[in-house]
Amino acid sequence: MLPDITILEATDIRLSLLYDNFGIKLSNMVHLFKDELYILAAMIANTSLAVKPGGRYKKYGEIFNAYIDSAKTLNSDNPRIYYLQGNSIFYTSKLFGGGAKKALPYYEKAVLLYQNEKAGNILSPYWGRKQNEGMLKKCKE
Fold first, then answer.
1. How far apart are alpha carbons 55 and 36 in whole angstroms?
2. What is the tally of structural domains in the chain?
3. Same domain, 71 and 56
């Protein structure tokens, strides 16, 4: 008989397994890729943190920051770095140093960097621009 678990617990387990499996594969392949892989890894770590922020902040917050720092070292002009940092800060309670006002400079920096990206190259990532603009609006409301 299967154990009786809630949907949230099942989701938590699945996200943890996803991150753990991705983390193992990433550690074996990371030397082959550039900043975008670190950004993707940071996004996954942040998603894992969001499942249970109180219990996961220390572990996954540190992982998120390490991946962001690695991406910045490789390419500090990547707008997705600042978009993700803005999201992390926006969704952090004001009591813990987060909120819209603190996130705003990250979204603003991302806007400037998105303007410098060349469009039309199918091989280059282009996600985040519209989402960043939406978050920028939320910060200014």
1. 27
2. 2
3. yes
Mean pLDDT, 10 residues at a time, the chain of 141 residues: 45 55 56 77 89 86 94 94 97 93 98 87 80 96 89
CA-closest candidate to residue 82, choices 58, 56, 60, 115: 115
Using an 8 Å Cβ cutoff, are 128 and 110 in contact?
yes
3-class SS letters over the chain: CCCCCCHHHHHHHHHHHHHHHHHHHHHHHHHHCCHHHHHHHHHHHHHHHHHCHHHHHHHHHHHHHHHHHHHHHHCCCCHHHHHHHHHHHHCCCHHHCCCHHHHHHHHHHHHHHHHHCCCCCCCCCCCCHHHHHHHHHHHHC
Do residues 86 and 98 touch, judged by C-beta distance below 8 A?
Answer: no
CA distance 36 to 52: 26
pTM: 0.76
∠ Cα 26 30 35 (to 5°): 110
Which residue segment(s) compose the domain that 21 sits in?
1-76
| Whether residue 68 is found in the same domain as residue 92 | no
Q: Domain boundary at 52, 76, 100, which?
A: 76
